[in-house]
Amino acid sequence: MAKNNGTTVPTNFIKKIIDDDLKTNKWEGRVQTRFPPEPNGYLHIGHAKSICLNFGLAKEYKGLCNLRFDDTNPSKEETEYVDSIMEDVHWLGFDWEDRCFYASDYFDKLYDYAVQLIKMGKAYVCDLTADEVHATRGTLTELGKESPYRNRSVEENLNLFERMRAGEFEEGAKTLRSKIDMAAGNLNMRDPVIYRILKTDHHRTGNKWCIYPMYDFTHCLSDSLEKITHSVCTLEFEDHRPLYDWYLDQLGVYHPQQIEFARLNLSYTLMSKRKLLELVEKKIVSGWDDPRMPTISGLRRRGYTPESIRDFSERIGVAKKDSVVDYALLEYCIREDLNKHAQRAMAVIRPLKVIIDNYPDSQFEEIEAINNPEDLSMGTRKVPFSKVLYIEKDDFMLEPPKKYYRLAPGREVRLRYAYYIKCTDFVKDDKGEITEIHCTYDPTTRGGSSPDGRKVQGTIHWVSAFHAVDAEVRIFEQLFNVENPGEGDYSQFLNPNSLEIVQAKLEPSLKEAAPGSRWQFERAGYFCVDTLDSKPGKPVFNRTVTLKDTWAKLIKKV
User: Fold this and answer.
1) Which residue among the candidates 34, 38, 302, 543 is catalytic per the annotation?
2) Nearest alpha carbon to residue 237 among 107, 85, 74, 70
3) 273 a catalytic residue
4) Average pLDDT, stretch 443-453?
5) Which neighbouring-strand residues pair with 280?
6) Which one of 273, 302, 335, 414 is the catalytic residue?
7) Does domain 273-343+471-557 have CATH number 2.40.240.10?
8) pTM of the predicted model, to two decimals?
9) 3-state secondary structure string, 318-345?
């Protein structure tokens, strides 16, 4: 932990590096980071960790953080992805101000850098196909084989590279490769490709280019051009760092410091953009923003708050070694936030009719209910009460087991905020299903307590049938039913019960609930009004998370 203005704040190995750099004035007191997504898909919770880390470091050290799109593969990139990434970063609470950049901003400069390497004898045009390059690359135990085109003259390479740019050759016919060491222990150093031919229009540059730089070449040089001080990457780029260093050192340009940290791996979740795209394309989910997806847009639609995701990112910390974070921790963070801020309401997810036989037929009354017991400043609301109610099916059993404190024949329970009721009879249909419950109520117990001091052990929620709002409620579970669906064919691990759609009965205050608003349905969980499918007066609710707190129980056991 470290002190910041007298307040204790969490620290990590990256902050220690920055602290040491500031002490030695390594970067003249500057701290400049960047968040560099590829616009080839929607961001997921793993990217949220990186966003919070990079923008958070800049904020803590009074530095700057750039948003940069590494858009070097036009065949997979779309403006839709760019727009969604910008929305996600802003939604999480961060602002790049006037520092939104694209790798495509630097295409001319990157081309010049490639020409410079050719003139230095450090790059050559190769005619091998992609399969041939792969076959001659070697393995960890077998040396690579030099390309027969490796020793072309500088003049020939310059000529061929210019002709590549002019569009003279077909895709795959030629590449520009670095001339490093085909015997290097690090396979990334075995003459990696710098440029390839792609005759595809770019979402920003149109048809200006038909050759595009590779990610490794572009990434480190973009950091250099933007004068990044601390280039924070995930661990899979650690083996690429020697290649980045080679490019920067050979060209003699500004050299940022790369620091690797462990990426986020979340249980019961896929964290591969390629596989997430497959889920969308195969229509296993409704889209990138399906509430079962780990994308930021999916979590937002499900009802997660930016505060909860920032809290989650802070709690998991920054490590040097890969590990798997329990999904329950993410759920714990959203519960903690919504418990404090979400207004309460009563909603019956699976309705069962209750008729109070001794309640006047035409009488209606208003019951006062607390909006949030965690924040009494949120006030109260009026909930209508009548002779016919709905309760949850699970709140009634004919033959209840021990420790079942809800409604049963001859048993008395408390209706939340209202009265004591006692079951006197029930009705079944032809299939033996219970269709309605008959009860009596004690009019002296209004408010939920008895003047004679008798106690009841169960309290259940309810909705007045006459006033109830019919609404579609979507109950989400994990999309996968194993902790690590990324091992093997993930399709065999799909949870067939990941989505259940029910027709619920809601208290009337929820009829005009605004899209995106979050609520606690008492005893049922936290829910959010769907932002796409809700209509005025006809809200659709997504369940964000249950009230059950698995993470807190895990902590307790430890």
Assistant:
1) 38
2) 70
3) yes
4) 91
5) none
6) 273
7) yes
8) 0.92
9) CCCCCCEECHHHHHHHHHHHHHHHCEEE
